[in-house]
Amino acid sequence: MDSTTVKVRQEEDASEQMEILHDGQGGRKHKRVVFTAKSANRNAGKRAKNYLRSKVRMLNWIGHYNLEWGINDVIAGITLGLTIIPESIACALLAGLPARYGLCSAFVGPFIYLFFGSIDKVIIGPTSLVALVSVQFTVGKPLEFAFMLTFLSGIVQLIMSGLRMGFIFEFISMPVIKAFSSATAVLVIESQLKVLLGIKYLVSGFIESVKTLFSRYSESSSGDLIMGVCAIVFLVLFELLEKLATRRNINKTVATVCRYLSFSRNTLIVVITAIISYIWLLSEPQVPYVLSMNALSGLPNLTLPAFTIEAPEKTYTFWEMVADMNVGIIVIPVVGILTNLSIGKLTPKGMVDTNHELLTLGMCNIFGSFFQAMPSSGAFTRYAISTACGLKSPMANLYSGIIVLLALAFLSPYFNYIPEATLAAILICSIFTLLDFKLPLRLWRESKRDFAIWVLCFIVCILCGVEVGLFVSIIVNVAHLLFLWARPEVSVKIQEMDEMQYILVTAGNGIYFPAINYLRAKVLKAATQAEFQIPIVIDCHKVTGLDFTAAQGFVKLAGGLRREEEDESEENRGGEVLLILYRLEVSLQKMIDNADNLVYCEGQEKLREFLTQESLRNGFINLKEHIRASIDLGYKIDIKVDS
After folding, report:
1. Cα–Cα distance list, 25 to 1, 5, 8, 31, 96 (Å)
2. Across residues 150-160, what is the average pLDDT?
3. Measured between alpha carbons, how far is 437 from 427 in angstroms, rounded to an integer?
4. Of 560, 545, 535, which Cα lies nearest the Cα of 515?
5. Span 163-186, average pLDDT
6. pTM of the full structure
7. pLDDT at 128
8. pLDDT of 168 over the 80 cut
9. 96 torsion bin: left (phi>0), alpha (psi -120 to 50), beta (else)
């Protein structure tokens, strides 16, 4: 038999061809679709393109970039660059590092985030939260410990991203994040009080620090205190300019000037106080306040972090550094990503790809460690400024990073003229916005459980450290979720259908092995109260999951509904209660073994038939009144006829 091939469609760039085979008489035999090599290459190209877009997020918005976006991003980037410079210096001071290393974090991270970042209004750089936590693991150690901590934090974040562990952060509730942020704000403010007073000491723990501060209050310097208070007053007054700019009756030009003066307040106070110090030192050998010394000049070198450190007291190997930093290599990545996720939830979309954000932040920290940077992440203060400046895309990271690079290249020697009290004032004013005591008041009114978690996290963070408070709060949250898993909401009611009573049990979203015994106890209690006379209907329409232990638990429940009396005579033997699993998915039914008094049904009519059959079997209704119940459903109906 001869066959001919007819090409229904064949174009030069066709992705497929359809062949129709004919027999010798011209009748159609069959047809088949032939995928060409070009089709496979084309599909592979699409997959590669989509994968590249999912990783390099810049490709998703750069095609839509326009002049309006560019103008807004330039303005926002320059403003943020001028803001991030004093913030970075202050964060480096808080972390016990020279100013240069804070600025290194403020230019490497933005360049990486420009290409891979997924949250528009995140500007990467050092933050007071991360600085406060990191100093606990690097204090008293060589500077290289800070760079190794940055490197290991990035590695941990990459590993978490690769293992798709972003779901873990869903276990950290909003009350925990808010309590953690508020506690960190309190700790940062307390740590800067000694700087405002010009007192030098290093102790661990909030309580010990407060005791030391009060015991050495007599050593305070009036020069530092005056400089710090003046800086705080200046920052607060200039912050009010932003509110002034929002008034309706104010001139538009004046409003714009006020807004950008407010955004630049950190830079202005640093420049003003540095100029004062410079002029003072022209005529006097020293100023009456402490300056932020040890500011190195020039750009950082590109180098791997040291895996072996030779200090005067000892030589640290890589594993000794890891052991000394302890849980810091876990806590720092968690704190950093939490900030980014919190900012992402404030954006209009409110959705964040946690695994991708872990990947991006991990690269920021790994590449940052090559330039001697401290750990970095987004910051709420920078988010507020970027929103107010009308930032449109992550392109603002480019301009911000360039501003920081220029500062590193040309202004580093002048950082030595910045008073430490000024930097402390910047930290206090910027972190003060994280103090949120309105939330616990609301939680007290609306959710006592969340209020208790907030209080627990806040107190433990203050007394035991933020890493301990965060860990304890996560454990409490997970324990509560496990409790809900083991004790799901189970509704038990007496219902009627055509005057036939049954016990309706409505289960929660998933019945797994921790919850099955709880469900069995509820059902058996209801059956006992009904004297095992009416059937049990478990409505499973909400049940989306079932495991093997829970499936066997349903079989045991059916067995528990067979009531045997002490009198084993046929007439006095207790019956068995019918267990009906109503609206349970077929895929889940297959996991449950068969039982004599266990049945399934999907609709109301089938349920009515089962209830009627049971009522007939138990003698609650007359067979003649319900002739439709004579359908054999697999249960024997004993009709006793009196002689």
Report:
1. 9, 14, 19, 16, 91
2. 94
3. 19
4. 545
5. 85
6. 0.73
7. 84
8. yes
9. left
